[in-house]
Amino acid sequence: MMMKxxxxxxxxxxxxxxxxxxxxxxxxxxxxxxxxxxxxxxFKYEIRTGINIGGFSPLPLPAEIRKINSFSPKLNxxxxxxxTYMFGAGKSWxxxxxxxxxxxxxxxxxxxxxxxMEILGDNGERVAGNWTGGVSTQVVNSYLxxxxxxxHILNDRWGYSVGTFWSFLLEKEFSGYVYDGYLREGGATxxxxxxxxxxxxAYDFSNNLRSFSYGLQAGGYWRASPxxxxxxxxxxxxxxxxxxxxxxxxxxxxxxxxxxxxxxxF
Length: 266
Description:
Blueprint: H1 2-5, H2 7-39, E1 43-57, E2 65-72, E3 76-87, E4 93-120, E5 126-153, E6 158-171, E7 174-185, E8 192-204, E9 212-223, E10 228-237, E11 254-265
């Protein structure tokens, strides 16, 4: 009689019973299917897609860079295919490698003082010296990256990886312009060339970029289902992005990026 007199309560009770039952079944199915995905295979295959957030930076910031006016990491995509060989008790440890295609880009604007620079003149001539004023920089690079990682599955939801990466430069751009300042030709006491009002001078160091880089990588993942996971990986470059014979920029610049996305496990 109470259910007939109050149909809303009856509907609510049915929903609670169905949801509670389905939740228990779903959790049981997840554990069973996840055990099959993890424990019954020596090799695990995965495809991932994500975005890179970060930039190219010296560490620490040199004294020549007085102020960062703006920074934009841009929208950098990555896609990766990998294989993991599982071993150990319950196959909870693994060695992972694969191939990743990724973009690493940024735009920055800064105020600098006595910053080593080589600008392009109106007729294509190059003028080197110490720059004081504004510097706008754009970096747009594409890489083929091979990670080599040790992985560990903590439980049916969480896992992590640590190791190295090796990157080959596919497309490159490191360029920009200077403005609102002056250049001391040849050094700190050289002839002073002033850039005022809207006058700018371009520079392009793209051909001075190193074609090969390497570094460290560490990250983790959360498994949303037996086949779908959400991940984040932090990578830190160990070598300068510029060639060893490039002396215009007097400090090393390294890529520091956080890769966030989701993957599908086979």
